[in-house]
Amino acid sequence: MTEPIPRMRTAAGIVAEIKALDPGSGVTEYYIRQLAREGRLPAIHAGSKTLINLDDVLALLRAGTPPPDNAPETPSGIRRLDARLK
Hints:
This protein has 86 residues and is of the alpha+beta class.
């Protein structure tokens, strides 16, 4: 048996496919590009185009992604101050 050809699309093409399946979807081109840029989605660079496998995007959307960790790092304990008091 032969393996099916991957459905490679640009970010715009992926959003168009998702909107065809779910017209009310909130997925944007920016989000798809961001996932590829961060390395969460494998991408192929073909000239000036970035191609992403549509099935990989759908699998990632089904599984979900963790929320970003935006909590500021707060040091614990006593910190040394470099400034001298006179």
